[in-house]
Structure prediction request, 309 residues.
Amino acid sequence: MAAAAQERYEACPENKAIGAYLGLAVGDALGATVEFMPPAKIKALYGVHESITGGGWLGLKPGQVTDDTLMSLVLGESILKKGAVDASAVAQSFSDWFVNNPVDIGKTVKRGIIHYRYSGTPYVAENSSDAGNGACMRTLPVALATYGLSDEINVKIASRDQAHVTHNNPLSDAATECVIQMIHAGLTGCDKYDIKHGPVKQLLNRFPEFNYFEIHREMPSGYIVETMQVVLQAFFTTDSFEDCLINVVNRGGDADTTGAIAGMIAGCYYGLEAIPARWLSQLDHAVADACELQARALLALEYGKAVSA
Ligand SMILES: [Mg+2]
Prediction:
């Protein structure tokens, strides 16, 4: 490809949006194999884990994704149907998804859905122990749908309207909003310096516990602070989508979710063409098609303009 054409292609938000969605799915499928494993066990079993093979504690088929990707798709559908994030519609969508016996579901997510079913209220109350990564892992559709909204407050409202269906916690909110801003920066074509000194710095200024400089964290739990630390370490210390994802999942722990979040950020930043073909071809084809379709539709959505009753 000629340099000028390459530049245009790389700056194309649609290419980056599809890269983000497929990056999320690839990271989920890659990481799920080693979820909950310590790095020493991963090393003993695989040397370096770098193939989408399925298996893991969930006994997945090669290319099968987990709740990280599936909840994102359910959320994206709801946004497209309503033209915006509508908390009640989101809660109902999650509830419908739960009925169909998903392959995996987090305990905070399950609690939120049950709360909605009993109360009819789509929001859970603020809870200091809800600082899990379950709201952040599914935030990509909100980021794509709100890209270009000029008012940051409206982006925050959209983020919290989906997050608080299951997770209502300041650390979860801040990290989820940071990831949205990182995706927006990636879509715009910002470089890593801008991302580090923009959204990431804002997060660290508000909540210094997210500091990711000092320790090389392994075995991250589902606690959003540990999740973000490994995602940021992997993203800022590597120079390609492939290296970022291999770096993050080989740390084990909550590897499907760290893979999913790193995958959406790196997939957006580097673009679709940076995702290794061997990973894309291994991904569940129906899921890959749904991710691509949604990425295009969410990016094209005129957010806030109702598209259905
Ligand atoms: Mg999962």
